[in-house]
Every structure is written in structure tokens, then in C-alpha cells.
Design brief:
Structural class: mainly alpha
Distance between the termini: 51 Å
Strand order of the largest sheet: 1-2
Shape: globular
Number of helices: 11
Low-confidence stretches: 1-6
Strand content: 5-15%
Number of domains: 1
Radius of gyration: 19 Å
Mean pLDDT: 81
Order of helices and strands: HHHEEHHHHEHEHHH
Helix content: 55-70%
């Protein structure tokens, strides 16, 4: 029974928030209890060395990208909450590619509808940065901080994560490793593929992760990015 003067809508929202907190906490515990491997330390060491060198080498390119974004307005960087390893929420950085306030207008949409609305929100500079994957460069800082890895499942917004966990029970297993800048799903699949199809490749990496696989994915990603820089194409 509701208390006198209580708002049923507010009570329902409170119950949903409590349920979501419980789900996130449970998944975080499950991820912590999942098997840890000696190779994880080696991969973290590679993350630190490669991301530090990449930031130093790419500094002029980072500066050019920042100037291009600044010419289209502020802010230069997009900051968004993402779900990290074991459910920890962190702030992810990218060069801004959408108009200010776009994330609020996009809401909790998924799939094709999200892609269409995202394309309509994109700036001219943002479209070029996304086509060449240069908007992801600031995430090298996230790698240095320990929020992300160079290779792993792509980080996801908290609201999306909860929705997907309801529909795909195995989705929580992405929390076993740090999210990555690139991964098997990004190399193998198109944007039209479903979340469940992408999850299959994310879980393949988690199960088979090794130094060799990590370096192979990085090499293929570098080849893809260099190819796009040489032959830029519009972001779709």
C-alpha cells in the first residue's frame, strides 16, 4: 500500500533504480570471481607501453584533430560514462563528433534507429573523424589510466548495458576484461550486426585472449586505420 501523499510514479522509478543497482552489483561480483589469467598482466604491460608510445607519436595528429573540432564549436572532447571491468563506471574520452547535447536527444535507443539519429546529429568534421577512426585517439589516455585496454569489447553506456543484460543473459561476461578501443567484433562485423552477434566475438576474445591474439588484432586495426587515412570514405 502506498503512503498517503506518495507519488506512484516516483515509487516505481525508485524500485527500478534499486533493481538496477542490484543487477550491476551482482554482475560485478560475478566478474570479480571469474577466472583471472597470468596473461592479463602481460596484456596490461603491453597496454601501458604501446599507449604511451602511441600518444607521443600521435601528438601532432591529436593537436590537428583538436583544432579541427574546436573550429566547429565546443567542447573539443566528448566525455561519457561507460561500464568498465567488473561493472566499474568510468569517464570515456573521444573527440566530439556530434552536436552538443546529442546524447540526451538520442536517449536509450538501440540498433538501426540509433544509427540513423546518430548520423543526423554528426558534424562535418565529426563525420570525417569517425570515417578514419581518429575520434577514438583520446581513449589512449583511458588505457593509460587503466579504464580500458587497447583490445577488448567496446565500452558501453550504463543504460544500454542494463537493457542488454535483460535481453541477453550472457552479456555480463563482457565485464571480465577491460573494455577496448578495438576488438574482434569491430574487425569482423558491420554496424548492421546485432548486439548478440557482436557478443559472440567479444566472448571469443575473452576466452582465447593471449599476447599473440592481442598483437594480431592491433596489427589488423592499424592496417585498417592507415587504409582509411589513405582512402577516406564517408561515415555511414
Amino acid at each position: 500500500m502506498n503512503l498517503i501523499g506518495a507519488d506512484p510514479a516516483t515509487e516505481a522509478a525508485d524500485r527500478r533504480l534499486a533493481a538496477e543497482d542490484s543487477i550491476v552489483s551482482r554482475y560485478a561480483r560475478m566478474a570479480h570471481e571469474f577466472e583471472k589469467r597470468p596473461v592479463d598482466r602481460a596484456l596490461r604491460a603491453l597496454d601501458l607501453v604501446i599507449s604511451a608510445v602511441a600518444l607521443a607519436v600521435a601528438a601532432p595528429l591529436l593537436a590537428l584533430c583538436a583544432l579541427a573540432v574546436r573550429a566547429s564549436g565546443r567542447p573539443v572532447l566528448y566525455r561519457g560514462e561507460r561500464v568498465g571491468r567488473a561493472g566499474r563506471i568510468f569517464m570515456m574520452y573521444k573527440f566530439r563528433t556530434l552536436r552538443p547535447g546529442a546524447e540526451q536527444r538520442l536517449g536509450r535507443r538501440l540498433g538501426g534507429e540509433l544509427d540513423q539519429l546518430t548520423a543526423s546529429e554528426m558534424t562535418r568534421v565529426g563525420r570525417r573523424l569517425r570515417a578514419a577512426k581518429l575520434d577514438e585517439l583520446p581513449q589512449l589516455y583511458n588505457v593509460l589510466r587503466g579504464d580500458m585496454s587497447l583490445v577488448g569489447p567496446r565500452p558501453i553506456r550504463p543504460a544500454f548495458f542494463l537493457d542488454l543484460c535483460y535481453g541477453i543473459p550472457a552479456y555480463w561476461q563482457r565485464l571480465v576484461v577491460r573494455p577496448g578501443i578495438t576488438g574482434l567484433a569491430q574487425l569482423r562485423l558491420s554496424r548492421e550486426m546485432t548486439w548478440a552477434e557482436k557478443l559472440v566475438h567479444d566472448l571469443e576474445f575473452i576466452a582465447d585472449r593471449s599476447v599473440r591474439l592481442y598483437l594480431t588484432i592491433l596489427a589488423q586495426t592499424l592496417g585498417l586505420v592507415l587504409g582509411r587515412l589513405a582512402r577516406p570514405r564517408p561515415y555511414v
